Amino acid sequence: MSISDIMYRSDGKSRVTAISIDAKSLVTPTYFPAISSFGVKHRVDSLFDLLVDYSYPRLLISAYDIHSMDTTKRKRLASQIKQYMKQSFVFVDSGRFESWWYKDSGWNFELFSETLKKIEYDFYASLDVFPSFQTRSQGYVDAVLNSIESSRAISSSPGFIAVFHGSTPIELVSIIEKTLEKVKNLSGIIALPERDCGVSIIDKVQTISKIRKLLDKYDDRIIMHILGCGHPKSLALFSFCGADTFDSLDWINSLVDIKRFELTDISYLNFSDCECKFCKNESMIYIERVLLHNLLFYQDFMKSIRESIREDELVSKMKNILGSDMVQRVLAKIRFE
Model's pTM, two decimal places? Predict the structure, then answer.
């Protein structure tokens, strides 16, 4: 069920792939700016309008937030998405993130399914099943498999994404391994949260590299998406480990420091020494300058990651970003076979 082709392989498990949806092609590694109603100071529709107005070519939006809109706004959004998708890519997340934080136990599979039928999209994720003390081992694996199969039946879209969680990195790897053993034709894309991959960056790169190894044995064309990952240094490291696509709210909640490859407070834009076209335009509203500065960074940065992979220079790029000592320490912990 693969929808991607591997165009180039390089250092570690890094690769450049092309995902084909209808007549469109998305080249990875790449980043999806996420839109959410939770934990941000901007309305979902205003953030969507910003991405559309500036023709940003990808976005992720929550099914929960779409469902929560009044009918007029939802119809307007659906019309905008249809037009936007002629050139760009839309990823619809299941909405479990928002419903969990809002403590909304009413968000269920039926509402999720109904919402997906009201809009168009290129990619959509399965309804997350969070691990708990009541759903462990085989019972939890069965619950995940059931959610994946039920979610996949909602649509014939080739951009279906199977989502996995784990209470520990070991559990996450184990659940994905067991699922791959049980399902012959899983999905062309799987997704997993960065936070479930471990606490330290060492834990995270080890977990992601282990999962990439599992996927490669099953079908190396499967795309690995990392949910909630937008730190520039992590994007580089995880691309090295074989991750393909990423999303986060960082573009909304932080300012990207382009010189240190760090995320910092939004209020520091005037001290960033950035010469991009948005930072130089002081006639723009301040927050809009910040968001567009961030979006431009992610677009250019992921392009540079792809170029580094093609030129077999990703390790050198990581050393420029993180420093040679840190990169060597990280690489020493990863065993690629």
Answer: 0.97
